[in-house]
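Write out the bound-state structure for zinc ion.
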Amino acid sequence: MYANEEIKDIEDYLTELSAKSNDSAQSNKTKKKQAEPKQNTYLMIDRFAVEHFNEDFNNRISDSVQTAFAEGQGELVIMVDGIEKKWVYFNNRFEEDGMSFEEPSVNFFSFNNPYGACKTCEGFGSVIGIDEDLVIPDKGLSVFEDAIVPWKGEKMQEWKNHFIAVSRKNDFPIHKPYHELNHAQKKFLWQGGKDWDGITAFFKELEKQTYKIQYRVMLARYRGKTVCMDCNGTRLRQDSNYVKITPNTFDPTHAGTEKDTRVTLSEILLMSIDDCYAYFNDLSLSSQDLEVAKRILVEITNRLLFLKNVGLGYLSLNRLSNTLSGGESQRINLATSLGSSLVGSLYILDEPSIGLQT
Ligand SMILES: [Zn+2]
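---
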């Protein structure tokens, strides 16, 4: 044991502890218990001097670490007793800056599994909410030109006027057509920012007043299936985006900037198959990563190449199969069959171009 800054035998420590508790039980009868300073007590697993290049020593340490994690419920402390004394804390959780991360597993990256599915849309990729296409049917109009249909009415005009008033402060181009706005500007318009609560808040306000029939009618008019904002329609749980493919060209100083070359699974799902193939084809990994990913990379690029070769390079992997045309489904089946490397098979295709534009 390590307690009160000294090493003790566990038996001695327990006797000492029970004696102490008897004492305090007796003293409790006569006077109020005095607050004792809290002492951390540690279970000592091992003591050692570091030995380099010694396999027995390494094995011993790994055993001790394992025991410490088991006894310490995932936490261990190493006390370095050198010229400078220091304590080094470890835990076996995926954790940094107070955030804990799930240990990635196969299901973590699967929206077909409740564990990996987005918590907001439950893996459907869309939620019932306010439909952007119904609120802004003509994306060629600017906010100033009444792109936002529900704000056209006399009373609702106040929201538009308020938005115009705060737009300059927030550097928002009110005369720019909606489809030319960038992601940040659209986000500001919908989700709000400084002095502005957003279109979402506007509809929340309406929801609060649904006892008025006209608001109920209005809400119903704009309600529809919308792309889930949390997973961007990729159906994957949000924290799966913390796991990124890191090419060896990645420069850590670019993390979080536009030059960040790391890619998440969600981003891969949203790429066109052409871009996706190009990405995996050009991907250069460190020798260690390559060793791990070698086989899977061959499988990925082969499958993407089949899809590309049957003329489906414009689709994304995120496309739902029930939104495909007949010809596209046939071609996907063809790509699957080609991928299984059957020999001596004859394929007869009936109308493989049905529903395709080209
Ligand atoms: Zn979602």
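---
The CA atoms of residues 46 and 107 lie 37 Å apart.
Residues 118, 120-121, 228, 230-231 surround zinc ion (CB under 6 Å).
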